[in-house]
Amino acid sequence: MAKSSSPACFVATIDTGLSNKLKQDLLSQGFEMSEPAHTFFSAKKSGLSCTLYLSGKLTVQGKGKDEFISFYLEPEILKDFSFSYSAAELDLTPRIGDDESGKGDFFGPLCVAGLYAGEENIKELIALGVKDSKKINDHTVISISRELKKRYPHKILKLFPEKYNELYEKFRNLNHLLGWCHATVIETLVLETKCTKVILDQFAPAELMIGAFAKKKITIDLTQRPRAEEDPVVAAASVLARAAFLEGLEQLGKEVEMPLLKGASSQVIQMGKRLVSRHGPDILRKVGKLHFKTKDAILQ
């Protein structure tokens, strides 16, 4: 497979046997099709143009080109990541990535996940379509998470609200609780894999996590940085954490016989009021994070 790119137009050569899959995928994404001479098709949507020629040459240009290539074309068609990650940018050092999900959602668990990938696995992560979970729809998050759990050493800590509220009362600070969760997950993976290189999405001053690891009495090579989900191993951890949150939210919804909403919006407040009217105020300890101002709004 040959591939090159320019600022205005991306060009790749693909197996023409993929033409029908590509066409059907683009139709499902809302592209409009035409068939100019010497092409299988030309697809257009909102200023983005994708054309597959009979030779197998594929061109992509226009608004949203980079996102289309990174989030769809590379993982689904090209099975190659050199547009998103140049050889210089892609770090193949074995490492543990760690991330959390659910800390901004009133309903549902707080989930922290870590994943270890060796040098030979990091390219595979990208081929699986791993991205920051905030940029992937829920269905895809669940699907990729299942594959990750089969293939990679990992640890997921899922704190349902009753346990979360109990621990929050002990720590009295969300960042300190998060620090304990991350340190617990990372400690497990370090002991299992013997890998001490760790990348973590920074959520608090660096000293907080340094102190958390000191209490665990483990020594690691820790990198903390904002937007760490740009790293494929951290992105994989974010997918595991997000899937665990979504599954936990669904489980709680079944228990209270009401599908629970994500976030902490006015709609969440109205849902909380309905739950309280049906089950009484104690239900919030079972389904929600009680230190949120959302709780006070529900009980007003």
Features:
Nucleotidyltransferase, domain 5; 11 helices; alpha+beta; six-stranded antiparallel beta sheet; 3 domains; 46% helix; disordered N terminus; TATA-Binding Protein; 300 residues; five-stranded mixed beta sheet; 20% strand
Walk me through this protein's architecture.
This protein has 300 residues and is α+β, with helices and mostly antiparallel strands. It folds into 3 domains: 3-78, TATA-Binding Protein, CATH 3.30.310.10; 95-251, Ribonuclease H-like superfamily/Ribonuclease H (Nucleotidyltransferase, domain 5, 2-Layer Sandwich), CATH 3.30.420; 261-299, no CATH class. It has 11 helices and 11 strands. A 6-stranded antiparallel sheet has the order 1-2-6-5-4-3, with helices on one face. Strands 9-8-7-10-11 form a 5-stranded mixed sheet, with helices on both faces. It is globular and about 70 Å long. The chain starts with a strand and ends with a helix.
